[in-house]
Structure formats: C-alpha cells, structure tokens
Write a sequence for this structure.
C-alpha cells in the first residue's frame, strides 16, 4: 500500500475494512511500515474493552466468542475478534476460516474476525496479539475479544493482556477440576461452563467453587469472587448472563481502580517484551546473522568454543560491554 | 559455598551429591557464581544422552521416567532426572517430592532426581532446564531424562533440547488422537502408549499410525518412523522394549548424522536464548529498573507517552542507536 501512513490511519479509523486488514497483516509480518503505523494508531487506542477467552481445545470458545459478539452487537457495540492458536504452524491468518465465521454473522460489518498463529521465535505471539488488538481498538472497535486455544503459558501470556479474562471449561473433559491448572485459576475473572447441558456440569461447578474457596493468590484489597456462568453457546443459552457478568466485572474494574492497575502492569510487560524483541532483531540484523549463529553453534556443539564466551563476544560486537559480575 | 569454583567443579565431577545439588540451585537462581561454574563445567559436558519425555498431565510420565531410570541402572548407566512443570508457580525445586521419588529407588546414588518450576519472565525455563541438564551431564550422569508436564509450546521448547523425544499418550484421554497436536507429532521420536492395559489402546495406536502415515513435516534424508511402544509403567511392563527402542534411535542418530545436526540446532537456539536473556538482564540492571519500567508503563497507559518512542529512548540509553528502518 503506497498510501501515506496518515492517510492509512484515517482509512482505518473511518472503518475501511481493507485498510484494517492490511494494517493487521503489516503488524503480523513486522513489515517496515508497521512501526510507524502503530505509533500513529496508539493515540487512538485505549478505549476498547479487551476481553480474553481461554480454555482447553474443544471447549467451544469460538462459538462462545461469536455468540458474545452477537450479544454486544445487540447492545450497539462494534466488535473485533482475534483468534490465536499458538500451536498452529500457519502464519498470516487463516483467512478462509475467518471469512466463514464472518459469514455466520451475515456479513455484519460491526463484527471483524481475524486469526493469528505462530510468529517466529524472535517475535513473540503475545506481543503480536497485543498489537493487533491495539489496531482494532484504534480502529474504533468497542469490544475486542481475544480467544486462544489451549491453556499453556503462551495462552496465559496472551489473555493476560486483556482487561477481563474468561476461562471456559466443559463438563467431563479430562479430570475436570484437575485440568484447571494453577496459572489458569489465577487469571480467571469469570468462569464459563460451556456445553453445560452435559452430565457433570454441577460436579464441575462444585469443583471450581472448592478451588475458589481455598483462596486465590494475589487477591486485591477488594477481592472479586469470579462468578461461574453456565452456557450452551451453540444454542445461545446463558450468553446474556455472561454479558451481564462481564459488565459487572467492568464496573468492579473501574470502582476499585483495578482496571487502571492492570493496564499499567500490562504495559510494563509489553514494554519489556518490545525491548526484548527489538534487541533480538537488531542483533540478528547487525551482528549475528543466521549463518553466523549456525557456525557458532557448530563450534559449541563440537566443544571447541564455550557458549558463555561466545555470548560475551557477540554482545561486545554490538557495543555492550562485559558483564560486571 | 565459599569453595573456589575449581574445587566445586571437582566435587561435582567426583559425584558429591551436595555439590551437585548446590550447583543446580545456583543455576536455577542465576546466582552470580553460576556463570563461572557453567563455563567450567561446559568442557565436561556433551557425553550424556539427553532424553525428553512429554505428554498430557496424568499420562504417568514420572512413573515411566522412574522405570526407565531403573532399566538404565540395570545396564550399568547412571541417571539424572529433571522434572519440569512450567505451570507450577513454585520455584527452587520441590525438594520433598524429589526425596520421596528418590526413596523409591532405595536411595540408589546412581539416580538423581530434581524438580524445576517457573523461572521468572526474564529467565526462560527452557534455558534453565538446558543448563541443569548440562550440569548433570558434566557431573558424569550418562543418561539425563527431562520430563515435562503438559503439551504446550513451553514443553515443546524444553524437550526440543533433548537428543531423543518420547511422547507419552494414554488410551481414552480426551479425544485421543485429536489431542496429539501438530507440534507434538513433529517432535516425537518414539511414541509411548502408557497404561496400555486400558480400553482404547489399540484404537489410539491406529490413530497414531494414521497420523504418521499422512506424513511428517521436516523428514530427514533417511526418515525414521517413530515406533509405538506400549507400556504399563506402574507394573514395569514394556520398559525393556522402550529402552531398546531408545537404543535403536540412538544408533539412527549416529548413523545418519542426525544427532550431530540436532545438537548444532539446539545450540543455535540456546545461543539466541542466552543472548536474549543476557540483554534483558543488563537492560534491567543498567537502564530500566523495575521502578522505572513501572513509571513508564503508567505514562503509556495514561496515553501520555507512546511505547514505540519509549523503547527507542531506552535503547539509546544503553548505547544502541536508532532503528534504521
């Protein structure tokens, strides 16, 4: 797109879906112009509610996200959905799948869906997701839903960027409560038991309550007890209740100042991630090409060079002096 | 430990379990002396077979690792086990659990077990695991088993450091073959169906075979078809067969040169990870204290400063000039 950045930003802000799609692609691919674009979009961001959805594969997160989007549309709010799959080897968005999902919304232009997958080792998928969410936010989307597949550390890092985190569980999957790992318990603001018509929903709910009763680490001064909402997303059941629980939590975020504190903490983490990523890119470009890294690795594997000296040599090469301790 | 590093290395190499335990603790905690220690241990490393075990929680990986260790002991080889749980919030090793596990080996000094958990955001658990494995290797352990809980990207990063990767599955867990995600299929050198006396073992085996038949990406010039070994680890069944499959694969690694190529690739990844981690540490120490990062994040969250300019200011502060593109 040879359009000047200012023009591009204007188009994105005016709701031009093509301009938005190209912006997201540029950000995902770290295109040279993406930095300037993000810098100019930033002042327009910070208005959207960012909602993270996570849970085991097969828990029906996509259907739930679609239903929630529809609910927000009823309330007159525009929605962006970012679907992230850290285990997928495909980059650049599963465009076809996104189109099919958008079709289900009868091409409602108030709902925009975009898939993301692994961004190379240097990039960081959480950072890319945060940037894409910011682009949607700056484009005027009032709600940004980030859905992730799986419940590992990647997913935790991704949904942590949200203002509100929903953890989706399903009756009878694995050992139920055992599958709610420690990290997940801490990040859940709201639990959703989806496919709640299935056997074991009550048992799962009891399990969650027991876990909640044993105390959550890092409780705030005015603690929030995560509600447990039962849904059957495929039939639209429980979605209005879930939207209400989200609204309640948003009030809590505002009243207690927790929302502001979270955003500061999120920016702190993103800042570190941006620095890390930026440093590694410069390193790769300026003093450690792929070829040089491979050659050095071969020397180390053969025992001819120790990796600790190698690291110091490379750092010295970009003007960073030796470790003092 | 006020012992000079040379002395410490000597004690570790002589089989002093206390010296070894303290070395691992120092490495886990990034103690100031750990760098020097690792540098001096490095020339003694590279001899052990590093075996990674991964699989869903509840698949019996610990029992399997213990049984494998016993099998290797019968063959006269000393063993170190590193048990890693990326989702656990506890750092510093679950000493009590390790002791209990070691007791089961009748305090056989030929088996050493050590748990690891999350190391802060700056550190990287995969890097720490690699370092601990290297310490065990340098201490003279002939086999190092790395077992991880879960099947996310963290776990993949960890077991990738191994020469040989075992993926442990259990009949009837989740949707069986569906739970074998793309990333896991690629890293498995050997599949283990543990608890194979259960219903669904044959079905699971068929599922794996079907997946294998559809082709694995990144096949070598002389492709290895991962065998599927059925075990009942709690009763010691199938363990000898598994040890044989491991020996077969080791031969394959050597004959085809794949082993050497893997080690080079592993070192390349570790080198990048070490650089990343080192850069972030220096940054944190020299120009971006926790306090400064938090203050900056608050400015950004309030929309008073854009994060992209902030990053460039910080990089300029450690003497790295502006991005050229």
């Amino acid at each position: 797109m040879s359009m000047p950045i200012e023009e591009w930003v204007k188009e994105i802000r005016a709701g031009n879906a093509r301009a938005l799609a190209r912006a997201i692609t540029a950000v995902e691919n770290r295109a040279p112009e993406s930095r300037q674009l993000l810098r100019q979009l930033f002042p327009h961001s910070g208005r959207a509610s960012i909602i993270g959805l996570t849970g085991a594969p097969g828990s029906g997160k996509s259907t739930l996200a679609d239903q929630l989007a529809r609910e927000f549309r009823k309330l007159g709010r525009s929605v962006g959905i970012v679907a992230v799959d850290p285990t997928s080897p495909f980059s650049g968005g599963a465009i076809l799948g996104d189109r099919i999902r958008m079709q289900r919304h009868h091409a409602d232009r108030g709902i925009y869906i975009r898939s993301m997958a692994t961004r190379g080792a240097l990039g960081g998928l959480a950072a890319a997701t945060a940037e894409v969410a910011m682009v949607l936010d700056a484009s005027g989307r009032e709600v940004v839903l980030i859905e992730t597949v799986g419940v590992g550390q990647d997913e935790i890092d991704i949904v942590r960027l949200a203002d509100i985190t929903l953890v989706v569980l399903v009756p009878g999957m694995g050992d139920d409560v055992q599958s709610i790992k420690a990290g997940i318990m801490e990040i859940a603001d709201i639990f959703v038991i989806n496919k709640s018509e299935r056997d074991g929903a009550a048992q799962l709910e009891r399990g969650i309550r027991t876990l909640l009763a044993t105390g959550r680490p890092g409780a705030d001064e005015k603690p929030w007890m995560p509600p447990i909402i039962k849904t059957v997303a495929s039939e639209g059941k429980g979605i209005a209740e879930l939207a209400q629980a989200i609204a309640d939590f948003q009030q809590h975020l505002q009243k207690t100042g927790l929302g502001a504190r979270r955003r500061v903490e999120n920016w702190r983490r993103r800042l570190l991630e941006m620095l890390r990523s930026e440093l590694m890119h410069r390193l790769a470009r300026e003093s450690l090409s792929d070829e040089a890294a491979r050659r050095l690795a071969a020397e180390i594997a053969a025992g001819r060079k120790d990796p600790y000296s190698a690291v110091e040599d490379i750092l010295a090469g970009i003007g960073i002096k030796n470790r003092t301790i």
